[in-house]
Amino acid sequence: MDKIMNTAVRSLLFVMGVCLLVWAFMPNLRTAALGLLLGLAASFMNAFLLRRRVEMITLKAAGGTSRRMGMGLGSRIAMVLLVAMVAYRFPEDFSMPAALIGCMVMPFILLVAAYIHNRNKL
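Predicted structure:
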């Protein structure tokens, strides 16, 4: 899981770097690039929240300490709502559609990274 996550994080950071270059060199696409960056940052955070949640469930299933679990889905939805509120509040800086698209990128990057790692194992 760590190798897959590391590959996905590197890929996401590459996409974020491309967004920064688009923001720097294409002034007509600045709002879309910033919106995408905002969404990608939230997607990055949601991936780590989900990873932590999966680790907690794995430890509990393996008979580890029983800690009280929080609201995993609630915190991830709240992150996306925060992105939507920021994009709605500052429409001159952030594009709402780009921000919401950026929030959904990391799961697809994780799927591709998992496919690549599993294909290499065979």
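Summary: The chain has a mean pLDDT of 90.
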